[in-house]
Each structure stands twice: as structure tokens, then as C-alpha cells.
């Protein structure tokens, strides 16, 4: 075919195939028979073969699965992909509602299904799907674009030419899952435990042709930059996604009271079995995006949403033994060793019993028949004992007086249920502390998991966290299951961890009560470990969100000679002790116009990204907040600014457009 004619026909075919595809997969309402679709697709593929330069990334032919990859590339998420806090009963939902209303007053909720699949992020540039990624650790995921292109209701080109990041849940419908497992069994292959694993397994295939055969689907539920689209609520955001050509889930409802939410949750619970896809709960979101912003996030999840999780499947098995383990803080935890049993898709043989009180309370005895379930469908737990099935061979259990690892006396600290080993040299505590130090949210040393740490510790190569930085190539390569490549990778990630910003070290040290968020707050505030070390309790209490217990724990920690020595050693070994993340400049250190001002950004900025604007203003000593109030000094309104702009006008607050902001930033 002549080039110009081919080009015109390709454009026509794109439009037709996209239309039929959308009707079939997203609207569930096809207007032509499948054979017509197949014929057009064949024609498109053959023209593209003849004219390879006409094969664009948004061509519908790309859905059949392209080249096999060697590995997935890492993708940095523009805004983190967080998880949701859980509610397990009505009380938890009412508590959530109380917290929300206390913070932001009256609210409306949008209630949605929690689809049980795999969270993915879809990046569009000028309307074209350019990259899709898994959630990964929330900050960094894997590039699975080619696999995602095979999902028919992900538009390769959306209906408007926007540059946005859409989030959703990719899943495998129940029926496809059954068919897939039947086929696998027939071929003598291991079946997937549940549709979620099947979806995850399919999307993590390096050969996109496999994903293309797996019949995956998606429901999208948000746009990362919704407020920049001039959209003001989550519910409107979902309609907007529909308009752009995405598939959203239509089992959703707006509620204005928590009682209404509870009623809907009950209704949806009864619908669960009849849905053609799996759900593992219901998500309740504050509808107003302004209020969402005001509520903000904890380190892990938004304060404006919660996931109601369905009660878990329960099964009966036998308690074979109770094992004791000593944690990082010396707490001795009993674990039930169970006769292996299948629950919610996987085999369970251990369940934490938490502490002695719980064992007594539930009257759990060795060799009892016990009911178990997976809390939040993940963590196995003993629900209760079948007392009526006792045979007489059961034995009562009591906790020992001595630490099972180091033999020193166990103590019960007043007001706590846990028994604790308080010997600071207890090997189990040191080992667990090391595991925490290298973990993902602390120093994030890849390749140094529990297994390697246990070996290093057993062979006396590492006695404290500083020793990690003294490890040599020879020492590592001699460990079990360590090859040349993994040794070099490990040495590299140990080296890299030296550059971490201070908050990772602070969290990794395992100071009592100092979680990830507090570590970050402290690092930002004090900036160097030296300043934090010498801070008094009063100074610590002045820091937002640092309470009495935390302040005491920090002071006590830095009073210990051996801790100061350890930190000196780490510093000598080259470990960074300074906060290197984005800075909040103190107002008094800046003579800029922005110094000390409380500023709200709203609407879409076109010249600069919102994150850059925020960073630049903060670097000049300004403070960015989420909602407009009497305390706001200035509102920067981009395109399609909505209710925040109206509020600013109502309160007579100064408003700038983006051009003015840029001029002032340059001054
Ligand atoms: S909203 C900030 N809405 O549940 C987190 N998540 O723990 C916002 N999920 O794997 C998530 N259906 O992909 C949201 N309607 C829904 C959802 C949903 C399923 C998944 C999500 C993530 C997990 C959150």
C-alpha cells in the first residue's frame, strides 16, 4: 500500500479498534461481532509489518504482547503509592469517623469496593499511555508497561490530551481464574492459590505474550494530581475517569453519615459472593479533596481513608508446640506451631500468640484443637480453643523465668503485658536489632536479609551495626549461598547506605517509641545527629508531634556511653549523620518575602510542578499548607482553581497567579 494511504488507513483502524474495544471491555456493550474486531486487528498488524514506522506506542496492536524482557526496570513514583489503614468492625469505622470529624468538621464519604488485585500506576503523556508500574515498596515500583498494555480496558490513548498518573487495581476475574487453574492442572502445573496471586504472577511475567493470554482487567480509582484537574471530590474524580475512557467500578456511593456508611458496607457484604471479581473489603474515603489534603497522611497511609476488611475464613487445626522468640526490644513472644492447614489460599503452620496473658485468657493448652484465621487475610492468629474437643492429653503452658536465648532473668515491666529480657547483650536482641537496622524502611541495605544477618552473627563477623561497615569481600564470599555477584551487590548497597539521610539512621537505631515518622520529624528539625544528641527534653517537646514518652526515650538513649561510642564509630566509617532531604528553611534565616508566610497552592500550575513550587517556597522559609483559613497569608492559584480560591476571596486573602509566583521566586 502506498505510504500516505497506509497512514490514513492506520489512523482509521486505530479509531475503530479503540471504539470497539472500549464498547466491549469497558462498557460491556459491544456493537459489532468479535469477528469484525479480529479482522480489523489483523489488517492493522499487516499494514504495520509493511510500514514499521507507522507502528506507534499507542497502536492497539501493542496489546497482543511485544518483545520478551530481560528484567523489569525500576520506576520512581511521582507521588508515593501508600496503603490503607484497616477497620475490622463497626467500632473501628466509628472511631475513624470521629477522628476525621474532629479534624475537619462535617464530611461526606465516598464508599467504594476494595478490589483484590494488584495496585498499579499508569502514566499518560499528552493523552498517550507511556508507562505502567507496580506499587513496589510504595516509592519505587517495577516497569510493567508491556504487560499492562495487554489489559483491554486500559486505554492506550485517553479521550483528552492530558499528562497525568492514574492509579488502579489490576485483577483477574473469578471466571478467568477458574479457567486458568483448570488448564494449569490439566498440563500438570501448580494452580494459583487465588485470583490475586494469579494476577500478580501474570503481570510479573517477562514475556508479555503470557500476560496477554491471562484475561486481566482493571478498575481505576484515582488520579495522582486530581486537584490540578479542577476536580474537587473523589466521587467527581471517578466520573471524570469514566469520561476519559477508563473503567471505574460503579458499585460506589456517597454517604453523609457513618451510620449510612455502615448500612452500605452491610449491603455490599451480601453482594460480595455474586460479584464476578474478588473484593477483600470496602474503602471509605473522605469525598472532598480539600478535606483530604487537610487530613494528610501518616508515614504509611492517608488519614482520609480506611479499608473495612471482611471477617476472615476460619479453620480448625491442632496446636503442636509453643515456640519462644526474643525480639529487638527484648520482648519474648510465644508462637503457636500448628499442624499445617490451608487458610485463605495458603498453608499456615505458625501463629503468634503475642504474650502470656493472651494464652491464659483464651486458655490455650498444648495439643489443643484451635480455630485459626488470618487477620486482615495475611497474619495467622488463634481465634479460640475447642474446649469440648479436649481429650485429656492437653497440657497447660506457662512462660519460663529465664530468657530462652541468653538465660538471664525475664522481667515484666509495670503496665506492660510483655515479658522482657533486659540483658543488653542478649544475642537474640542484637541479631533482631541488626535485622531492623538493614530493613527497607531503615538503612535499606538490599541483599542483607534475615538469613545473611543470622549467618554473619553466628560466625561472629558482625556484633553491632558498625561492624556491617567493616565487612570485607573475603568474609562475605565465604558465606553460604553467596556468589561473586551477590557479594559485590551487597558491598555496593552497604556502601550506598552510608549516604542515607539522617532519618533512616535514626529509625534504624531502634530507639524506643521512635517510628519512621518521628525519626523524619526529628531529622528535619535537628538536621544533625550532634544537635539531636545534645537536645534537652524541653527542646524535644517543642518539636511538633514529639511527646513525653518519645522525648524521654531519646534523652535516655543518648545518655548511654556505649551508644555515643557506636555513633562515633559509624561516623568514622563514613555513615552520613546529617539530614539531606528537602529542607524547611526557618523563617528567621531567610530575608525573602516568603519567610514565615503560610501559603496554599491550588489549581494546576503549567510552568512548574507543584512539588517544585513547594520546595522552592520552603527553601525560602515559607510554609505550605493544605487548606485556606484565617491563618493563610497567600494563595497561589493555578488554572481551574476551585473552592480554595473562592475561600481565599471570601476571607480577603491575597491571591497570586503562577506568573506572579515565578517573578517573585526569581527576586
Ligand atoms: S485507594 C493512599 N481505592 O487497596 C491509598 N485502593 O491498601 C489509596 N485498592 O493495593 C488507595 N481498591 O490498590 C483505593 N477503591 C479502591 C481500592 C484500593 C483496591 C487497593 C490498592 C492498594 C490497597 C490499599
In short:
With 667 residues, the chain is α+β, with helices and mostly antiparallel strands. It is 37% helix and 19% strand.
Features:
667 residues; 25 helices; D-amino Acid Aminotransferase, Chain A, domain 1; 6 domains; Helix Hairpins; 5-stranded antiparallel beta sheet; alpha+beta; binds 2-(butylsulfanyl)adenosine; 22 strands; OB fold (Dihydrolipoamide Acetyltransferase, E2P); 5-stranded mixed beta sheet; single chain
Q: Tell me the strand order in the biggest sheet.
A: 2-11-10-3-9
Give the low-pLDDT segments. none
Assigned CATH architecture of the largest domain: 2-Layer Sandwich
Count of discrete alpha- or pi-helical segments spanning 4 or more residues: 25
Largest sheet: 5 strands, mixed
Report strand %: 15-25%
Rounded Rg: 28 Å
Mean pLDDT: 91
**CATH topology annotation of the largest domain:** D-amino Acid Aminotransferase, Chain A, domain 1
How many domains in all? Answer: 6
Bound heterogens, unique: 2-(butylsulfanyl)adenosine
Name of the level-1 CATH class of the largest domain = Alpha Beta
CATH-assigned homologous superfamily of the largest domain: DNA ligase/mRNA capping enzyme
Structural class: alpha+beta
InterPro entries: BRCT_dom, BRCT_dom_sf, DisA/LigA_HHH, DNA_ligase, DNA_ligase_AS, DNA_ligase_CS, DNAligase_adenylation, DNAligase_N
Binding site for NAD(+): 34-38, 83-84, 112, 135, 169, 285, 309
Binding site for Zn(2+): 403, 406, 421, 426
Domain BRCT: 589-667
Structure commentary:
With 667 residues, this protein is an alpha+beta fold. The chain folds into 6 domains: 3-62, Helix hairpin bin (Helix Hairpins), CATH 1.10.287; 85-309, D-amino Acid Aminotransferase, Chain A, domain 1; 314-412, Beta Barrel (OB fold (Dihydrolipoamide Acetyltransferase, E2P)), CATH 2.40.50.140; 427-498, DNA polymerase, domain 1 (Orthogonal Bundle); 502-573, DNA polymerase, domain 1 (Orthogonal Bundle), CATH 1.10.150; 598-666, BRCT domain (Rossmann fold). 37% of the residues lie in helices and 19% in strands. The chain has 25 helices and 22 strands. Strands 2-11-10-3-9 form a 5-stranded mixed β-sheet. Strands 14-13-12-15-16 form a 5-stranded antiparallel β-sheet. The chain has a 4-stranded antiparallel β-sheet with strand order 5-4-7-8. A hairpin with a 2-residue loop joins β13 and β14. The protein is globular, with a radius of gyration of 28 Å. 2-(butylsulfanyl)adenosine binds at residues 82-84, 112, 114-115, 119, 169, 221, 283, 302, 305, 307. It catalyses: NAD(+) + (deoxyribonucleotide)n-3'-hydroxyl + 5'-phospho-(deoxyribonucleotide)m = (deoxyribonucleotide)n+m + AMP + beta-nicotinamide D-nucleotide.
Amino acid at each position: 500500500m502506498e505510504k500516505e494511504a497506509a497512514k490514513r488507513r492506520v489512523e482509521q483502524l486505530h479509531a475503530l479498534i479503540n471504539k470497539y474495544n472500549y464498547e466491549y471491555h469497558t462498557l460491556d456493550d459491544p456493537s459489532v461481532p468479535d469477528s469484525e474486531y479480529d479482522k480489523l486487528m489483523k489488517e492493522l498488524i499487516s499494514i504495520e509489518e509493511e510500514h514499521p514506522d507507522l507502528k506507534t506506542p499507542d497502536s492497539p496492536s501493542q496489546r497482543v504482547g511485544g518483545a520478551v524482557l530481560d528484567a523489569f526496570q525500576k520506576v520512581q513514583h511521582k507521588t508515593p503509592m501508600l496503603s490503607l489503614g484497616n477497620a475490622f468492625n463497626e467500632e473501628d469505622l466509628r472511631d475513624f469517623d470521629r477522628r476525621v470529624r474532629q479534624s475537619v468538621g462535617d464530611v461526606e464519604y465516598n464508599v467504594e469496593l476494595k478490589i483484590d488485585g494488584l495496585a498499579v500506576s499508569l502514566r499518560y503523556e499528552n493523552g498517550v499511555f507511556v508507562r505502567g508500574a507496580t506499587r513496589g515498596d510504595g516509592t519505587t515500583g517495577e516497569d510493567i508497561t508491556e504487560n499492562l498494555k495487554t489489559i483491554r480496558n486500559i486505554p492506550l490513548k485517553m479521550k483528552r490530551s492530558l499528562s497525568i498518573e492514574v492509579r488502579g487495581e489490576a485483577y483477574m476475574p473469578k471466571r478467568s481464574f477458574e479457567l486458568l487453574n483448570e488448564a494449569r492442572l490439566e498440563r500438570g502445573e501448580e494452580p494459583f492459590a487465588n485470583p490475586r496471586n494469579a494476577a500478580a504472577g501474570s503481570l510479573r511475567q517477562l514475556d508479555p505474550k503470557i500476560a496477554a493470554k491471562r484475561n486481566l482487567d482493571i478498575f481505576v480509582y484515582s488520579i495522582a494530581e486530581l486537584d490540578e484537574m479542577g476536580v474537587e471530590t473523589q466521587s467527581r474524580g471517578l466520573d471524570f475517569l469514566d469520561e476519559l475512557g477508563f473503567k471505574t467500578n460503579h458499585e460506589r456511593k456517597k454517604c453523609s453519615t457513618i451510620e449510612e456508611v455502615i448500612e452500605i458496607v452491610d449491603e455490599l457484604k451480601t453482594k460480595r459472593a455474586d460479584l464476578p471479581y474478588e473484593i477483600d473489603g470496602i474503602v471509605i474515603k473522605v469525598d472532598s479533596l480539600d478535606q483530604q489534603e487537610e487530613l494528610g497522611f501518616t508515614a504509611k497511609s492517608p488519614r482520609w481513608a480506611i479499608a473495612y476488611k471482611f471477617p476472615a475464613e476460619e479453620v480448625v487445626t491442632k496446636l503442636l508446640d509453643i515456640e519462644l522468640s526474643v525480639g529487638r526490644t527484648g520482648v519474648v513472644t510465644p508462637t503457636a506451631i500448628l499442624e499445617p492447614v490451608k487458610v485463605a489460599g495458603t498453608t499456615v503452620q505458625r501463629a503468634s500468640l503475642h504474650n502470656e496473658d493472651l494464652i491464659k485468657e483464651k486458655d490455650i493448652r498444648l495439643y489443643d484443637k484451635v480455630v485459626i484465621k488470618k487477620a486482615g487475610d495475611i497474619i495467622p492468629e488463634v481465634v479460640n480453643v475447642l474446649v469440648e474437643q479436649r481429650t485429656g492429653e492437653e497440657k497447660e503452658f506457662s512462660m519460663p523465668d529465664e530468657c530462652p536465648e541468653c538465660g538471664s532473668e525475664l522481667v515484666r515491666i509495670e503496665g506492660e503485658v510483655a515479658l522482657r529480657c533486659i540483658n543488653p547483650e542478649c544475642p537474640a536482641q542484637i541479631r533482631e536489632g541488626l535485622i531492623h537496622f538493614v530493613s527497607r524502611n531503615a538503612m535499606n541495605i538490599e541483599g542483607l536479609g534475615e538469613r545473611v544477618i543470622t549467618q554473619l552473627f553466628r560466625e561472629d563477623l558482625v556484633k553491632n551495626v558498625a561492624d556491617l561497615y567493616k565487612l570485607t569481600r573475603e568474609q562475605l564470599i565465604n558465606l553460604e549461598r553467596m556468589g561473586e555477584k551477590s557479594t559485590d551487590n551487597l558491598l555496593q548497597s552497604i556502601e550506598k547506605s552510608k549516604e542515607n539521610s539522617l532519618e533512616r539512621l535514626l529509625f534504624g537505631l531502634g530507639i524506643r517509641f521512635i517510628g519512621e515518622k518521628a525519626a523524619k520529624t526529628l531529622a528535619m528539625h535537628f538536621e544533625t545527629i550532634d544537635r539531636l544528641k545534645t537536645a534537652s527534653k524541653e527542646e524535644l517537646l517543642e518539636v511538633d508531634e514529639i511527646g513525653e514518652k518519645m522525648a524521654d526515650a531519646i534523652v535516655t538513649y543518648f545518655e548511654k556511653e556505649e551508644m555515643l561510642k557506636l555513633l562515633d564509630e559509624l561516623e568514622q566509617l563514613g555513615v552520613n549523620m546529617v539530614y539531606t532531604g528537602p529542607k524547611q528553611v526557618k523563617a528567621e534565616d531567610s530575608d525573602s518575602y516568603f519567610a514565615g508566610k503560610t501559603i496554599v497552592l491550588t489549581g494546576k500550575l503549567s510552568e512548574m510542578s507543584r512539588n517544585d513550587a513547594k520546595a522552592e517556597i520552603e527553601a525560602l522559609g515559607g510554609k505550605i499548607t493544605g487548606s485556606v483559613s484565617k491563618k493563610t497569608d497567600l494563595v497561589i492559584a493555578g488554572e481551574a482553581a476551585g473552592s480554595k480560591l473562592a475561600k481565599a476571596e471570601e476571607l480577603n486573602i491575597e491571591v497570586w497567579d503562577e506568573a506572579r509566583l515565578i517573578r517573585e521566586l526569581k527576586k
